[in-house]
Write a structure and sequence with these properties.
CATH superfamily of the largest domain: Winged helix-like DNA-binding domain superfamily/Winged helix DNA-binding domain
Mean pLDDT: 91
Distance between the termini: 49 Å
Strand order of the largest sheet: 1-2-3
Shape: globular
Oligomer: single chain
Number of strands: 6
Largest sheet: 3 strands, antiparallel
Number of domains: 2
Order of helices and strands: EEEHEHHEEHHH
Helix content: 40-55%
């Protein structure tokens, strides 16, 4: 019986992929962009039109954007498949990544902040649970969120949201 391959995805700083705890090589820039966009919405379908808009937001659209996107996704699937990860799936209107949200640092960070806020809203002095949740969330940061995509409008917006969450946790 073979062991299950697990991936861990880091976006709170330079993009990193770890497979079974070991660093793994990421595919090319366009494929990494597709992966990052999908990881920001694990388990949910991201419309192909959204992926196309974000991949070519600053440049000239290819002659056949849907085909160009399909090529990027194919390369991404092949790169992840070589690592034993079968995560990217086609849906009628787009693509989704089937990954446990706990494997994506952005998702873990946001969830821990949300849980800490709920616990803190109960009133009284901060409990050790609240302090632990905030500290654990903040430890996930390794630099600017989505650093590999700095300058991309979609990444700027998402990064600003994450920075605001971080600042609220520090307050």
């Amino acid at each position: 019986m073979s062991a299950e391959v697990t991936g861990e995805f880091r976006l709170l700083g330079p993009m990193e992929l770890r497979v079974n705890g070991q660093p793994a090589k990421l595919p090319g820039p366009a494929e990494r962009t597709v992966l990052a966009l999908l990881l920001l919405a694990p388990g949910r379908t991201v419309p192909a039109s959204t992926l196309i808009d974000r991949l070519w937001s600053e440049g000239v659209l290819p002659d056949n954007p849907a085909n160009a996107l399909q090529l990027r996704v194919s390369k991404l699937r092949r790169a992840l498949g070589a690592l034993g990860l079968d995560l990217v799936h086609r849906e009628a209107s787009g693509y989704r990544v089937e990954v446990n949200p706990n494997a994506v640092d952005v998702q873990v960070f946001a969830d821990q902040i949300r849980r800490a806020r709920i616990e803190a809203a109960r009133g009284g002095p901060p409990s050790p649970d609240v302090v632990t949740l905030y500290a654990s969330a903040l430890e996930l940061w390794r630099g600017d969120p989505l650093a590999d995509f700095a300058g991309e409008l979609w990444a700027t917006v998402e990064s600003a949201r994450l920075v605001q969450l971080r600042l609220s946790a520090l307050a």
